[in-house]
Amino acid sequence: MGSGVTTIVNVRVFTGDGLSELSTVVIGGEVIVSVTADAGGEGDGDVVVDGGGGTLMPGLIDSHVHLFGAGDLERASTWGVTTMLDMGAPSMELIAGLRAVPDAPTIRTAGLPASAPGGMQTTRMGFARDSVVTGPGDAERFVAARVADGVDYIKIIAEDPAAMGAAALDGPTIDALVIAAHTNRLRAYAHVTTVAAAQLAATAWVDVLTHVALDAGLPAALVTEVAAKGLVSVPTLVMMRGVAEKAGGASGDLVTHRGVVDFAHAVASVTALHEAGVAVLVGTDSNSAPGSPFGIAHGESLHDELGLLVEAGLSPVEALRGATVLPARMFDLRDRGAVTPGLRADLVLVEGDPTVDIAATRAIRGVWIAGARVR
Ligand SMILES: [Zn+2]
């Protein structure tokens, strides 16, 4: 819990469009109290922090993680990640335990993901049998069970049926899951790492496509459909790169992709989605799980993802928006995502100007979670 008054002087604030003039930001308790032009003085407050002319950003939001222990949270907050959207957790007890950790990132969770009978989630990744959805008629049961668990949204594993057969959810089942989620006022996030899966998910009108196809670039018609339907992309390029490297390029043995895995397809698709006006948000798929396709470090990987998104064509400001204001607005995190009076004091102080050089986000000098300094 934040206590007392902290005054951060001599900082430029990330406004969502760029940087402010030199400013003074006052934190009282858990919230931002004021943001004013720097008066040039030393500042008042129980604690005064000299920002050194650096940049004060909202706490970073990672829109795709998996959590397994308190160490994941500590690594995240050390790197400025203050909100984490879990995209598939083995148990709600685990999440409840992590939510009880003090001064740690906020956690939202999908709980168990919806997956096909014979899918990797239950056969290899350790998710409970309740994760399995047997067909369209089973969708309401699955979503009702997640609602009873208290999840924040529904995660759907979409795969290429031509590659996976019965180990892939079919189109009618994905449709039924999305309808059941929306009937319960929950968003639907689809795991899509192939063009075929992305098409099934877009047809079903999911809210969010997470990952991006590795087997081919998204066809122009599908990019247009994603944009027209207002779907959101969380490409997790850092995971896509890891999977592609592990698979050894086009000769990979990934059954999910019929052997065709190329990171260049993922990058090209992100470029196309961005150019079509699709909101591209920052997610890493960070995990410390045994059985995951590729280990990704919590926290630091978000900075890798920002860099990869800039390489794919986002401006640094656009990439930063994808880790701050955009997920806050799109995922009902309206108490955060901007350095604005009244919002939660989740803040990251960095040296330099990340709106010019995205790598500057790594030069972290301070992190606050709900007003409590954690770094
Ligand atoms: Zn994931």
TrEMBL record:
GO terms for molecular function: hydrolase activity, acting on carbon-nitrogen (but not peptide) bonds. The keyword Hydrolase applies. Residues 55-372 form the Amidohydrolase-related domain. Keywords: Hydrolase. Pfam families: Amidohydro_1 (PF01979). PANTHER family: ALPHA-D-RIBOSE 1-METHYLPHOSPHONATE 5-TRIPHOSPHATE DIPHOSPHATASE. This is Amidohydrolase. It comes from Subtercola vilae.
